[in-house]
Specification:
Blueprint: E1 20-21, E2 31-32, H1 34-38, H2 40-51, E3 61-65, H3 69-80, E4 83-89, E5 97-103, E6 109-115, E7 124-132, H4 136-147, E8 151-160, H5 164-172, E9 175-177, H6 184-188
Parallel strand pairs: 3-4, 3-7, 7-8, 8-9
Antiparallel strand pairs: 1-2, 4-6, 5-6
Length: 191
């Protein structure tokens, strides 16, 4: 699909066909959504689908998770007319931070940080990332928000896999993703 083509019928998830498979090996995610972000209608429809379940919900700020969650998170914040908070990998913020260790989808141990002055008790935060594979990264972001007294208003990602971590998140928080249920098994199996 070229970057200008828009299908006549746009069902939820039509833009998933814009994503490209991994050609660089096991240190990378199995599918790359960055081409989807280059498609103007694809990006708009993806963000609209992610936000649809949260229409009418109280959301004070949108937080995007380093780094690809910044793209969807900033787009969601602009659409909702809310502020955007970057939740970063350790070492990138030059202000007072709270930190949370986690294991990412590749099994690497990392640390996530958020500025401590951005989340006040009761602040309702919509957490956005590109993908939730094992759930480790999103769970670290959840723990940071809640430790600072914030409330997780929801979790949104292009895909939330039915992994142990993905299920843990979906059982506890309002979630939104773009993968139609008929395609979910293929995404869970990385096909």
């Amino acid at each position: 699909m070229d970057l200008c083509h828009v299908p006549a019928t746009r069902e939820k998830g039509w833009y998933l066909a814009l994503m490209a498979p991994n050609v660089k090996g096991p240190n990378y995610a199995w599918l790359d959504p960055s081409r989807l972000y280059c498609h103007p209608q694809g990006l708009q429809d993806c963000v609209a689908d992610l936000l649809q379940p949260f229409r009418g919900d109280a959301i004070d700020v949108v937080a995007g998770i380093d780094a690809m969650g910044f793209i969807l998170g900033a787009a969601a914040a602009a659409t909702l007319r809310k502020g955007f908070l970057a939740i970063r990998k350790a070492g990138h913020l030059c202000v007072q931070t709270a930190a949370q260790p986690y294991t990412d989808y590749s099994g690497r141990e990392k640390v996530m940080e958020v500025r401590t002055d951005a989340i006040a008790p009761g602040l309702r935060v919509l957490l956005v990332d590109q993908w939730v594979e094992t759930g480790g990264t999103m769970r670290a972001a959840i723990e940071l928000v809640e430790r600072l007294g914030g409330v997780v208003a929801g979790v949104a990602a292009i895909c939330i896999e039915n992994s142990e971590g993905g299920k843990w998140i979906q059982e506890r928080y309002k979630c939104s993703h773009c993968v139609p249920s008929r395609l979910q098994p293929r995404f869970d199996q990385h096909q």
